[in-house]
Specification:
- With about 350 residues, this protein is of the alpha/beta class.
- It has a domain of about 160 residues: HypD, alpha/beta domain 2 (Rossmann fold), CATH 3.40.50.11740.
- It has 17 helices and 11 strands.
- α5 runs antiparallel to α15.
- The chain is globular, with a radius of gyration of 21 Å.
Length: about 350
């Protein structure tokens, strides 16, 4: 095997059981960390030999952020506002430039490791206006909510690009572009939302589901559990990651989100508008909503359309209908040092992972 594992015999046994089941199927995961585990350890190749294909869905938060949201942040940065972002947003290309380009041109763009860092900067520099770009699914959203509840300073606001996973999966299934025999649900997201939000996909669409962790054995065991469901004619939600994910998730985190954020209809990169999958800052916190606070700067952006980069297949990759290596730009015009789309930028992006581990 291509990976170091404390119990290689266990991994080999699980793979043998998957193969001996006789099940030939296509499963989708919706987590960039699962994709990294899959490709880094060669599990995709091993599973293909058993008749199981794993495709990736919209599991990269940076990747699903739309060009318009990127342009909003670029506009604020170019207007003299201090922008704080996670590192993998820095080089995501906008229509004509990236935040890294604005920074190189003198803009005050700062990489932070958490929203707490951004709050600290805003408190230490009260004469500057700070905006934090809130990126992420339910995993990182609670930290944004807690920041809003912490009485942030007047010079601090958030541009929320947060999204939620379960209803996006419903939209993906309804689009019917790819065959999905089972879903591998993300462990990190599930620590917050628990099990219940996914259950409708099994009950209404008869899709087997397993919440899985991120070690190679976790992922293999989740896939084995899906094959067992198919072999037994079941379509249920099971939790392989029960040592971390509790059925109820994290009620306190969800309570904080409910106090500070409201669901909105929002577009995802590569998707049409998906109802109730965006999280906007609630009216109570308007003073810290960058879209309200800086509406005069951002309103012109809202009336504009920003097409996807020509030739970029990031949207199709996020919908599971193509692989990174099938994009004509992959490894040529589009590389980590000169990305065309966000899938080549984020460490959770399918193209960045494929380039890192599979490029000949």
């Amino acid at each position: 095997m291509k990976f170091e594992l404390r119990d290689k015999e266990l991994a080999a046994d699980i793979l043998e059981r998957i193969g001996s089941s006789g099940i030939k199927a296509q499963f989708m995961h919706v987590c960039g960390t699962h994709q990294d585990t899959l490709v880094r350890n060669g599990l995709d190749t091993m599973l293909a030999q058993t008749g199981i294909r794993i495709i990736q869905g919209p599991g990269c938060p940076v990747c699903v952020t739309t060009p318009k949201e990127i342009e909003e942040t670029l506009k604020l940065a170019e207007s003299g506002i201090t922008i704080t972002v996670f590192g993998d947003m820095l080089t995501v290309p906008g229509d004509k430039r990236s935040l890294a380009d604005v920074k190189a041109g003198g803009g005050d763009v700062r990489v932070v490791y958490s929203i707490t860092d951004a709050l600290k900067m805003a408190r230490q520099e009260p004469d500057k206006e700070f905006v934090f770009m809130g990126i992420g699914f339910e995993t990182t959203t609670p930290s944004t909510s807690l920041a809003l509840l912490s009485r942030p300073p007047e010079n601090f606001s958030i541009i929320s690009c947060h999204r939620t996973v379960p209803k996006a999966l419903k939209a993906l299934v309804n689009m019917g572009e790819v065959k999905i025999d089972g879903l591998i649900e993300p462990g990190h997201v599930s620590t917050i939302i628990g099990e219940e939000p996914y259950r409708f996909l099994s009950e209404e669409y008869k899709i087997p589901q397993v919440i899985a962790g991120f070690e190679p054995v976790d992922l293999l065991m989740g896939i084995y559990m899906l094959t067992r469901q198919l072999a037994e004619g079941r379509a249920e939600l099971e939790n392989e990651y029960s040592r971390v994910v509790k059925p109820e998730g994290n009620p306190k985190a969800r309570e904080a989100m409910a106090k500070t954020l409201v669901e909105t209809d929002v577009k995802w990169r590569g998707f049409p508008v998906i109802p109730e999958t965006g999280l906007e800052i609630s009216d109570k916190f308007d003073a810290h909503n960058a879209r309200k606070k800086h509406e005069d700067l951002l309103a012109p952006i809202w009336d504009m359309e920003f097409p996807e980069p020509e030739g970029c297949k990031c949207g199709e990759i996020l919908r599971g209908i193509t692989e990174p290596q099938d994009c004509p730009l992959f490894g040529k015009a589009c590389k980590p040092g000169s990305p065309v789309g966000p899938c080549m930028v984020s460490f959770e992006g399918g193209c960045a992972i494929a380039y890192k581990y599979q490029r000949k």
